[in-house]
TrEMBL record:
The lineage of its organism: Bacteria, Pseudomonadati, Pseudomonadota, Alphaproteobacteria, Hyphomicrobiales. It comes from the Bacteria. This is ATP-binding protein. It comes from Methylobacterium variabile.
């Protein structure tokens, strides 16, 4: 139907019926028979480890210089695997509509907001917390760069001769890295420029 925005396939069966085998087969066909030399974008979120075999199959089929394109990570509930739900695409100070929608839904679920009047505050809180951390807004307080927070970034900054004045903002580091086309390092630096959950407490405390 032209009204459909996406396809959704639901597979259900009793344990041991071959659901994982079927899904892995579909994923192999999707990866192997897509047009073009580049791999299609495919993400698998798996409660178990059944998808690891498919990922290893794709990885081993790639030449050594491209094996980083297929990667299996088993997530753990530790700080090393933590993700900031307020993180945005590289260089963006304010969220896109789809990013804002995700953040709003996540925050509403996290706070268990049931009162419609309270729910109206959530979009305003999101706008304000990003304004607060932006370097392009008035009455903001963007995060300030601090050495030794990320030794790898410190090394890159030194190796590429990036000047860091006193009280330099993390956003200026991000922009300098982007100008040098060091996109991975820029994305890494942007982690420290983004708001975090604790910043909402400051927003709520504002008059």
């Amino acid at each position: 139907s032209p009204e459909q925005l996406f396809w959704l396939t639901l597979i259900y069966a009793t344990p041991g019926s071959g659901k994982s085998v079927l899904m892995n087969r579909l994923n192999v066909e999707f990866a192997a028979f897509s047009a073009g030399a580049a791999l299609p974008f495919l993400a698998v979120i798996d409660v178990g480890v059944s998808s690891s075999g498919f990922i290893e199959l794709v990885r081993n089929a790639l030449p050594p210089e491209r094996r980083h394109e297929a990667y299996y990570v088993r997530l753990l509930n530790t700080p090393d695997y933590a993700v900031n739900f307020l993180d945005l695409g590289l260089g963006r100070r304010m969220p896109l509509e789809r990013e804002r929608s995700f953040i709003e839904n996540f925050l509403t679920t996290l706070l268990n907001v049931s009162n419609p009047e309270v729910a109206l505050l959530v979009p305003r809180m999101i706008s304000r917390v990003f304004q607060l951390k932006s370097d392009l807004q008035f009455s903001s307080s963007p995060s300030v760069y601090q050495p030794d927070v990320d030794p790898e970034l410190d090394r890159i900054i030194h190796d590429f001769g990036i000047e860091v004045p006193d009280k330099a903002r993390w956003w200026s580091i991000v922009d300098a890295l982007v100008q040098r086309r060091l996109f991975f390092a820029a994305q890494r630096a942007q982690r420290y420029a983004m708001p975090v959950l604790e910043d909402f407490a400051r927003v709520l405390a504002e008059p």
